[in-house]
Every structure is written in C-alpha cells, then in structure tokens.
Automatic annotation (TrEMBL):
Residue span(s) of domain ATPase AAA-3: 64-197
Domain (ChlI/MoxR AAA lid) ranges: 272-337
Pfam families hit by this protein: AAA_3, AAA_lid_2
Protein source organism: Paracraurococcus ruber
CDD domains assigned to the protein according to its UniProt record, in alphabetical order: AAA
Record InterPro entries: ATPase_AAA-3, CbbQ/NirQ/NorQ/GpvN, ChlI/MoxR_AAA_lid, P-loop_NTPase
Protein name listed in UniProt: AAA family ATPase
PANTHER family: MAGNESIUM-CHELATASE SUBUNIT CHLD, MOXR FAMILY PROTEIN
Length: 344
C-alpha cells in the first residue's frame, strides 16, 4: 500500500483533494508499471541502479538529463535500452565540431513538381523523435548547441520562418566526457540549466562487473523488452505533477536553493565561495524530481530525504565557484554537502 504523508499537503488539482482514494489508486498502478520498467532495464544495464533511477526520474518529470562519465560505462547502451523499454522512438546523434544545426533540426530542399513548379519541402532532422541521445554534446560548436537549445526548451524548431512541433514526449539524454577537453566547447550556462539533472556515471562494483562480463560476452546477449508506451509515459508525467507535496518538503527545497545563491545565502562561508547560484528553475526541477522519486519508491508524497538525495544532481551544474575557492581546492560537491547539512 502506498504510504500517505501525515503532514499538510499541497496539490495541483481540486479533484485530487476531493477524491484522494482515486489518486492513491493511480499512483499504485503507476508504481507497479515502473517496477516492471526497472526490472526490464536491470536485465541489460548492470551495477548502475542510481544512474537508472536518476534517468527515470528525469523522464517522469518531463525533463532532459546530462550523463557525465568516462567512455565505456554504458551511456549509449542505457539510452538505447530506455528507448525500447519505454516504447519510444529513439535516435542518436554523434556530436562533432563540424556538425551543423541543419544536421540536427533538418532543412528545406528545393523540389520541382509537376508542370515545372518549384517549391521547398522540409526534411525533418533526427531531433524529430521522442528520445534523442546527443552523444558528446560538448564537442559541437556553440551554433549547433543553440539549435538544440530551442528544441529542448520549446519542444519545437523554426526553419525558414515556419515552426515545426516535435513529437510528444520529447526528451534529450546528452552525454559528456569529463576528460579529454581538447577541442571541446563548454556548454553555456543557459543550456546547462535546461537539463533537469546532471547524472554522474561511475565505475560499477566488482560483483556488477562480473555479472556484466557473463551476460554480455556469451553467444546470446540480453535484449531489452518493452514495458511502457509513449502515451503511458505522458500520462505518468501528468500524474507526477498531481502528487501532493508537504510543507516541510517545500520549505526544504526553498531553503536549499536559496542558500546556494551568494546574494542571499545565510551561510557566510558558502557565499564567499560561489560566483553564481541556481535560479528558480532549479527549485522547479527539485520539486518535480522529488515527486518522481517518491513514486519510484512506492510512496504517495515526497519527503525531505528525497530533497537531500537529489540535491547534487539538481544543483551541481547550476552553480559555479569563484576563482579564490577554486584556488583553495574547494569542490562543488563539498559546497552542496554543506548546504544539505543545514537541512538536518
């Protein structure tokens, strides 16, 4: 049975307040489907439970994720697996310095029809899908990155004065290599802020790596099986937004995000280390992500523990240290831990 928060709650729909039993039933049904989704992904992806959880939280929240990890940790495999398991049209674009905006969003071509009449026809690019993997996104030029920025934020693209809506749902899972920064173009802060979570992918433990070797080097490789559909994912995203949030969770989100801004941080030591901090979009992302995490764990409402668990992936790409803090060896991870400590 789904746990119900015993604190005062806030909902987004009057109907949910009038019929909480209906909301509980919907959340329980969604929880069962998500359990099947996690099992299906776990048969293919080994030793990355937290990475899978954070990626699913991103998709359930209707956002985009930045996957950061060294080569060979299964980032591409994860995106391909999620596309199959969630029943989404998934595509992959390898970002390179010579990649042009038209290579992503598409372009118009001149055609000659019957009677010699000429006209332009729009040929959609790979961005016209439901799950786009932008592989090594920081290797593309700023011009190309800006073309993807509009698609991520507005779910549409404009070519030659005509607006073309993208399919629904639409999500970008971008990968970034934390090493080998030569020849790369760091993502601008505006584009980084469009990513709901920054998901760090680390090496698997020995047991998971052993299971991976046995499962992936034999005569038959495990294949992902569909466990959800695109329309079901859209319905799940709508349901996530109706999940009630307790006053204590709302206060924790506001305290965490606002204290990460050097202008109004109540922690003098933190304020002196930061060049800039997260905006309101970070609080929105944390609000949605905590709801999604609660449902994944089989709970009706999020808790302060959800806020603490998701603080790092929500904040670390939305903050920057000043020069003196970097010179002293301070890390963003250390700052976030200090911010979390004030929440108890």
């Amino acid at each position: 049975m789904i746990e119900v928060a015993d604190t005062a709650i806030r909902g987004n729909a009057d109907a949910d307040a009038a019929d909480p039993a209906s909301l509980v039933a919907e959340v329980e049904a969604l929880g069962e489907r998500l359990h099947r989704v996690r099992d299906a992904v776990g048969r293919v992806i080994f030793g990355q439970e937290e990475v899978v959880e954070h990626t699913l939280i991103t998709l359930l929240s209707g956002g985009h994720a930045l996957l950061v990890g060294v080569p060979g940790l299964g980032k591409t495999k994860l995106v391909e697996t999620l596309g199959t398991v969630l029943g989404l049209d998934a595509r992959r674009v390898q970002f390179t310095p010579d990649l042009m905006p038209a290579d992503i969003i598409g372009s118009e071509v001149l055609e000659e029809g019957e009677g010699g009449k000429r006209g332009f026809r729009f040929i959609p690019g790979p961005v016209f899908c439901q799950l786009l993997m932008a592989d090594e996104i920081n290797r593309a030029s700023p011009r190309t990155q800006s073309a993807l920025l509009q698609a991520m934020q507005e779910h549409r693209v404009a070519v030659a004065g005509h607006v073309h809506p993208l399919p629904a749902p639409f999500h970008v899972l971008a990968t970034q290599n934390p090493i080998e920064q030569e020849g790369t173009y760091p993502l601008p802060e505006a584009q980084l802020d469009r990513f709901l979570l920054e998901v760090e992918i680390t090496y698997p433990d020995e047991a998971a790596e052993r299971a991976m070797l046995l499962a992936t080097t034999g005569a038959r490789d495990a294949k992902p099986q569909p466990a959800l559909t695109g329309p079901e994912l859209i319905a799940a995203q709508s349901l996530i937004r109706r999940i009630p949030v307790g006053e204590s969770v709302l206060d924790a989100i506001l305290r965490l995000v606002r204290s990460a801004r050097p202008e109004n941080s109540p922690l003098p030591g933190i304020a002196k280390q930061l060049a800039w901090g997260p905006g309101p979009r970070a609080a929105q992302a944390l609000m949605l992500a905590t709801r999604a995490r609660a449902v994944l764990d089989g709970r009706l409402a999020p808790s302060v523990e959800d806020v603490l668990a998701l603080a790092a992936p929500v904040l670390r790409h939305r903050m920057a240290l000043n020069f003196s803090a970097r010179a002293e060896g301070v890390r963003i991870a250390d700052v976030i831990e200090s911010l979390k400590a004030q929440l108890g």
